[in-house]
């Protein structure tokens, strides 16, 4: 009997060629961390072995993670508070898998379905914790986009519910799996001593933009604005006529909704949590600090686009997350981790024997060049990953669903990393250094700063426990 129920026939386009089938089967059945009850290759070939997924939050990244997952799962349902986005993505999903998922304006109706094995969550950050917790309590495994939480206490709650329910939970920090294994190679080089003892790590995550005054206007047709706000405070919808181009296009360039919500602390952690959740994750993993975290956070310099009082913006009609910053985090062994808006996007590792730089497009430096004559051990990258590297982040998630072991980007290591980013934002908002107790997971001797570890949900949108 299949571990996953079958709901949809598999279209011909989903079948893999023999070479890919054999490669994937070998990866999934290898001994070690990812060994499961049946091979992922069989799951792709046999309709009786395919899990049933649903996606909640469909614009941009929601479709991206869904689209790369059709080869592993059948999508029975989709949910979005924007009827236009929902309709467009249902049509695209039907084209991919031959059957249209059922659409929902309210994700809670989707969670009531017993035929769904897992949900993929790509709603804005302020929704992540509520949907994730309720999905696990409804018996679903979860793949949730990064950054996982809006606050540090939300992370603790998710950890509690993962432990309580035994659900598999993958965080979408896909640099742990994808990007041609460059980041895994970087960690393997450090573990193999290629730069000696680490002396400093710098994460360049880019700056953000400010905005003009953004007026309150009528809510676009098809968007349930109150539900989009959800746990966040009730405010008017704001937008200017200029449209965004490129990735995230087709929406206003300046708004407090689609895409630009990343520039508002009410819904996100700004650039610190957006790109920071990727690069600080790899840096923390490389430092072996993903079970502990920093002891001190120092805001060396920063620029906020609006005035703040007591850690809160004084105006509500402009972007309010930092545009420029340099943050120093004291990591275990007093190794400095610098998070900066300046320089090339990526991570610079500096040690006693050299340094190298890695990002999504390159890994460069003399220690990298030296690999040509002195390569890493054959199993170096697999040792970092904990087994054969999955084809992509969804591949790893489905393997974990079968084995009932946590995937490569688990909630505990993610939250430890993200605490550095959250603390950096609190330090910027209050304009002062913070001392952090990584055991108690609280800020030392600063009640005001500790008040930022959680946020109250708007009435009617509390987490349903």
From TrEMBL:
GO terms for molecular function: nucleotide binding. Pfam families: GFO_IDH_MocA, GFO_IDH_MocA_C2. Residues 215-462 form the Gfo/Idh/MocA-like oxidoreductase bacterial type C-terminal domain. This is Probable NADH-dependent dehydrogenase. Residues 89-172 form the Gfo/Idh/MocA-like oxidoreductase N-terminal domain. PROSITE patterns: TAT (PS51318). Coiled coil: none annotated. It comes from Rhodopirellula baltica (strain DSM 10527 / NCIMB 13988 / SH1). Gene3D superfamilies: Dihydrodipicolinate Reductase, domain 2, NAD(P)-binding Rossmann-like Domain.
């Amino acid at each position: 009997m299949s571990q996953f129920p079958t709901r949809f026939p598999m279209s011909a386009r989903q079948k893999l060629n023999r070479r890919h089938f054999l490669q994937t089967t070998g990866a999934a059945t290898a001994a070690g961390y990812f060994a499961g009850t049946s091979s992922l290759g069989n799951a792709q070939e046999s309709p009786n072995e395919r899990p049933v997924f649903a996606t909640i939050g469909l614009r941009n990244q929601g479709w991206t993670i869904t689209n790369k997952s059709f080869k592993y799962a059948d999508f029975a349902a989709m949910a979005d508070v924007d009827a236009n986005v929902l309709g467009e993505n249902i049509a695209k999903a039907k084209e991919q898998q031959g059957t249209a998922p059922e659409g929902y304006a309210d994700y809670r109706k989707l969670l009531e379905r017993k035929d769904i094995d897992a949900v993929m969550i790509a709603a804005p950050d302020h929704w992540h914790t509520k949907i994730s917790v309720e999905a696990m309590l409804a018996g679903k495994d979860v793949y949730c986009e990064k950054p996982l939480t809006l606050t540090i206490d939300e992370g603790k709650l998710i950890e509690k519910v993962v432990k309580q329910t035994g659900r598999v939970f993958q965080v979408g920090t896909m640099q742990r799996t994808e990007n041609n294994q460059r980041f895994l190679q970087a960690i393997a080089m450090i573990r193999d001593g290629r730069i000696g003892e680490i002396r400093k790590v710098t994460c360049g995550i880019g700056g953000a933009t400010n905005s003009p005054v953004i007026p309150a206007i009528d809510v676009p047709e098809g968007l349930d604005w109150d539900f989009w706000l959800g746990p966040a405070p009730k405010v008017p919808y704001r937008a200017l006529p200029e449209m965004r181009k490129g990735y995230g296009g087709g929406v206003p360039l300046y708004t407090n909704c689609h895409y630009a919500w990343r520039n508002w602390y009410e819904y996100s952690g700004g650039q610190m949590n957006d790109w920071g959740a990727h690069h600080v994750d790899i840096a923390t993993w490389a430092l072996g600090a993903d079970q502990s975290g920093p002891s001190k956070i120092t805001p060396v310099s920063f620029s906020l686009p609006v005035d703040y009082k007591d850690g809160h913006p004084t105006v509500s009609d402009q972007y309010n997350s930092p545009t420029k910053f340099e943050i120093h985090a004291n990591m275990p062994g007093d190794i400095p981790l610098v998070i900066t808006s300046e320089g090339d996007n990526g991570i610079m590792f500096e040690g006693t024997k050299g340094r190298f730089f890695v990002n999504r497009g390159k890994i460069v430096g003399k220690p990298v060049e030296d690999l040509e004559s002195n390569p890493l051990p054959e199993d170096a990258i697999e040792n970092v990953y904990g087994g054969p590297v999955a084809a992509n982040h969804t591949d790893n998630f489905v393997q974990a669903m079968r084995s009932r072991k946590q995937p490569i980007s688990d909630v505990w290591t993610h939250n430890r990393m993200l605490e550095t980013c959250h603390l950096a934002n609190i330090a910027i908002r209050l304009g002062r250094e913070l001392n952090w107790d990584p055991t108690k997971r609280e800020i030392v001797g600063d009640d005001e700063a500790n008040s930022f570890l959680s946020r109250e949900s708007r009435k009617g949108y509390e987490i349903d426990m």
